[in-house]
Amino acid sequence: MSTETDEPTPATTPAAPPPATTIEVNGIAPIPDDERSASPLDLFRLIFGGANTFATVVLGTFPIVFGLSFWQGVASILIGLLAGAALLAPMALFGARNGTNNAVSSSAHLGVHGRVVGSFLSLLTALAFFSISVWSSGDMLIGAAHRAIKVPENDLSLAAGYGLFAVLVLAVCIYGFRFMLLVNKVAVVATTVLFVLGIIAFAGDFDAGYQGTATGELFWPAFVGAILIVMSNPVSFGAFLGDWSRYIPRATPPRQLMGAAFGAQLATLVPFLFGLTTATIVATAEPELFAAGNYAGGLLAISPGWFMLPVCAIAVIGGLSTGTTSLYGTGLDFSSVFPRFNRVQATTFIGVFAIAFIFVGRFAIDVVTSISTFAVLIVVCTAPWMVVMMIGWYTRRGWYDSDSLQVFNRRQRGGRYWFAHGWNWRAMGAWLVSAGIGLMFVNLPGQFVGWLGDHANGIDLSIPVSLGLAAVLYLAALRVFPEPADAFGPEGPRLVPAGPAANHPIVGD
Question: Which bin fits 311, alpha (ψ -120 to 50), beta or left (φ > 0)?
């Protein structure tokens, strides 16, 4: 087995980063210290850029869709963002510490084979949010172009819009981290400015006194549901933060990493509040479109003519930044699950598959509405996985053996994180039970209602239940069935006991 103590290495001066147009060659192996030239500010840009889009704007409309008033909607957005950002922030630590993505880091807690859970969640999340991004941005682009310059609004033009976004996103992801960072540096500033222009465009029609329809016994289900919809946005980034923070120097203080992730989510108040405020206007001025769930059409109908160009720009820039942050990490992780592919080949394969899904899902089997429900279900499963990771970090004192983390990628066996044939049933059991019961509490009327979802007065308790259960079950398992002593660092475990050393040697190619 590995005898590496993996003590933090002395700080080194990173080499000058390669040009953004140089194709990234690094795969899932730890990024060398001298190549870690990114900063917490770069992490902020990537997270904020990936969420500062029309997809987030649409999430911001849900409080009004659920029947809340404007100020109730503001409260639900603030609570959801604060809770989601607090849950997300620690997930930024793993990449900088281990130089690899969060799915690989999860080997330390779910086991050498159990890490495929993170890869699976990452793949499903990327597929869902990449599709939502392309569809929402494509619809807005073609809708705005139709109104501004009479571009036909039909399946052919929509297919062209989707194809434009999808191919651009795939090209950026193939070039890799540096080019994606460049795109998001532009997107953060440009899209924010365009949303501010939107505030000017709609200021005259906005009424902060907008009253909702969710009163009496309907209020709490609507309020909690809106909070969880907002909270799902930051949680959806949990599997991806290591993809970007792995380029940040190992010695970076944890508070800076967590601050970047937390601050980036708070900054998404811009698109969330844009969606909230414009939803009140659409609901008042275009009630038929609003009742039919056509927020995009309603927004275009109430927009002044001069705002059509900014709408197109938001669609293009926002769709590009969200799509790249979703697709990049999944291609990266796919290269570790199937080592015969390098990062570029894996990204191309996943990208082509995702593009095919976008077209089939939109034009052949019409899953546009159900994909949003699918995204919520994935988030319910991702939240307890994040809790397991965070508790694992705390009990391990942030100590990891980088060599043992790579056992799965090298098709070996053994190491500190082998546990029982590559599975840590303590973490796996806590995740499976928590995710399963959380799904039973999902309550999305007309879309998906779990077995227990209609037993809580209409309130969706899925995420709170899955989070709480994961914390209780995993900690209980660690105390009743201690993990092997060699899974911990020189200082031993924190909060939980350690069992006898397992002494699994690393064997294989």
Answer: alpha
